[in-house]
Queue: 4 jobs
Job 1
Amino acid sequence: MIVRLLDSNEDGLLGMEDFARMMEGIKDKRNKESKIIEAFGMYEDMEGSGYITPKSLKRILSRLGESTSIDNYKALI
């Protein structure tokens, strides 16, 4: 299935360009996942609970100049 999707000249094989394009896509996906994990860690590390809590979300967003009630943060989560 991967070969069919990425085979640019439809010869049934992945050439070097096709392979490089596939690997670039994997690299991009891993970079995005890494950034998401890093962002989650920034919130979660506030309390070490393994979850983003309204309290930790409020604390982080307050640092960024955002401020609202804890009920609004609960609604966001």
Job 2
Amino acid sequence: MNTVNNNNNSMNNANNGNGGNNGFSYKGFMACNLKEYDGKGVKFAASSFINKALTWWNTQVQERGREAAIGMSWANFKALLVEEFCPSNKMEKLENEFWNHKMVGANHAAYTNRFHELAKLVPHLVTPESLCIKSYIAGLVPEIPGMLRVTQPTTIHSAILRSGILTDEAVSCGTLTKGNEKRNGVEKTSKP
């Protein structure tokens, strides 16, 4: 238990320079020098629970017994967490958001960042990687997917890099504007 408290103190101390953010930073987390997790048990993952999650975990330990609870497989642990903290109506909402997520204008970075966030929450919609690539391409602005498919990206990383390049090129040659308006030879003027 002292190790957990020491790690929490290290995280709090390492987090002091994060611009006033009261949450934890990745840098602070890495400063804890935690041991690598092998996925065979849940002891270390569960030791970071607080509030409602901690209450839930303590109930699991009471019901199953300490050894059985900390010895369960990672897959079973994840399934229990999803069942408790990700109700089906919330999962459906996330799945809908994922399917309807679209790039707006030339904002490739914002589209890609949100795609990654959603993909983490609905991993069953992006596995295998070919499905992830297909889903990513489907949400790009209409000017990009055809050109991107020609390059036949085999990893999500290559699809993201190439679509970013194609987006920049489309902006440079005027087929895509930052305001999501196609140029058709006539410049739009603003009304006074």
Job 3
Amino acid sequence: MSSNSDDIQAAGSDTRPPMLDRTDYESWSQRIRLYGRGKENGLLILQSIDQGSFKLGTTRNTLGTTPEGSVLLRPERARTYEDLSDTKKKRYDADVRATNIVLQGLPKDIYKLINHNIEAKSIWDNIKMLLAGENINEYYVRFHKLVNDMRNIIMTMPNIQLNSKFVNNMSPEWVRFEPVVKLNKGLKETNHEQLYSYLKQHEKHAAHSLGLASAASCP
């Protein structure tokens, strides 16, 4: 049996899901759910996104019976795909499809930031935190956790690339600050902790700027 991760990389028969527009997360999230709902076992796909993946768990095979008729069981082992009932196989397959649908709807910059996740709910939650009104402290905590996760699986990335991802994936109110940050804080010499400290000082200004921009766009 192939692993969940292998299945995700191999699958790709769907027509392409709606592509995420970073400035219109709410519309994308609704369209991607409609897209998933329209696929085979669509309700299971949405269940995977909302509730998390099906856990294979463990099982014990029957060894035999005692003279008295009691059942003897082998030691507990990890359950495999082949052990599942047809209903649970559909649930497992829906997890793989859900992950593919969400990942295929992401632009490359966001995909590269979270593609070490293989569960649809984890990916979905990270995208929501990234684009749906996350403040700078929440963003920093989430980004820092992603960096630690990368280090735990011995995945390295040049400092300038990490810093660029940190700056380029901030929520919309920070967009106009990106050139200033890149100019004033050398992305090669600094780190994302220092970038956070710098940006934290300007959080109120960023929120105020977003409010002015929103007001100006109203008819």
Job 4
Amino acid sequence: MVLSLLSIVYGALRCNILAIKIKYDDYDISVKAAAYLCIFLWRSFEIATRVVVLVLFSSVLQIWVLPVVLLNFFGFFFYPWILFWQSKSPFPENIEKALTRVGTTIVLCLLTFLYAGINMFCWSAVQLKLNDPDLINKSQNCYCTLTQSIVYLGL
């Protein structure tokens, strides 16, 4: 369990550093060891508490675990797609030139699957935006953060 927690925390740490570098793409960012340590501690406490709460919840209310977890996961999975459909943007064609429309759809589904999996256990530092050619929203507004918080809490 410790190795699993460490690997998940390391993945979240790398996503955080990547999000910082993507957001400040115009600047040369060097992250110091103290910043790595702070992000590592922050993500480890964040993920560990969520896993403990999920274990306690599942031990008391065993029948409700699967519906709550699936509702939370599918909320995060469909949230970028709902925003994409509401924006009425054309389907992204330039993700990879070698992919067909079906291949692009599969890649976007796998990307949103990964995004939903990350958001199940920790707050994502990036916002997936399917109507943007970069697929990542570099600036988060108040509405976006509020909506993601509501989905995150499973309300």
